[in-house]
Prior knowledge:
Helix content: 40-55%
Radius of gyration: 23 Å
Strand content: 15-25%
Structural class: alpha+beta
Shape: globular
Amino acid sequence: MKESCYIFVRSKFYGFNEAVRDFSEKYRFFFPFYKNVFLPLETMLYRAGNYRLVPGFKEELEKALDRYLPEEERRNPELCDKLSKDILKAHFLDRMNPEEYFLYGFRDKNYTERRQWLSDRSMVILLNKKIGRSVFHDLINKDTFYELTKEYFHREVLVVNEQMHFDDFLAFAQRQKRYILKPLKGAYGRHTFISSATTNEEVSKLLEQLLSRGSWMAEELIIQHPATAVWNPSSVNTVRVPSFLTTDGVRILQPFFRTGRKGSVVDNAGLGGIFAVFDQDTGVIISDGVDEHGGRFPQHPDSGVTFKGWQVPQWDDLKELVAKIHHSLPSCHRYVGFDFALTEKGWVLIEGNWGQMVGQMAELRGIRYEFISYLG
């Protein structure tokens, strides 16, 4: 009962805050009141309640201050208190979490500049409002998305669940010899691994372990093109293409290339990978490489390949493929973040998701207004 009450109060609190914010931005005569009185008052009330309105926020705040502030600044209580208040203002402004505050360089940005950036939470709220939560489930469930787009995978895929026959999994394993396994509802590459189990006993033991942890996708390994393998041969290095289905056709916003680190089998930033934004018209990388914690790399730290100026191979072909796939989906899928890998036979689809607009961090440019415009 107490938790449901908190959720209700929190919902009303944020709803009222955002209604006042939007009103002040529409009717500028009210703006000084919102910026100089209302926002500081919200911050004071929130802190007076010891951050209880949003469970975990205080811990996130302390963790971000510890991670992103130099030691001498962490020892300055007045500075930490001032930053804590400012981080809260950014949170009320557009649901920014404390880590995003630092990764997006908000310490040096004013109100107007901050409004140009899109937080992860704000993006999800916009998508739920404009598209609907049910559409998200078509993407988060990898088997559902596969059924919608299987002709573009160009590899053997098997859903591993309680309804699957053991002989089917055994036959798949023996055909492939080595194959990759992903949690059916997994994200960020977590718990993904490669298996070489092929004997009856090995597969039986593997299957028991898998099903004890839910349902999985077993996939034929992708052999990437030498042009992308040059970055890191141990991972399949991929491209994320955020695609919008608009009245003017398919629009692409801040696509990025991802590469893993030496020895890793995945390229996700959350597991140590590096990403860099490339131009949606030319396919040429226009930013340094960036990792999840904001570390910037002019060159890949293992292979030494330079990010800026590198041409994504066969980019024009991929743009056409993105449009073809997006038009083939039900019309409710107005936004999809597509992941692709390049092979000797061309581009293959890996998965679709809503993802995160992490390209903002690499390009050092907020895309909030573009995102809203493309979303309609």
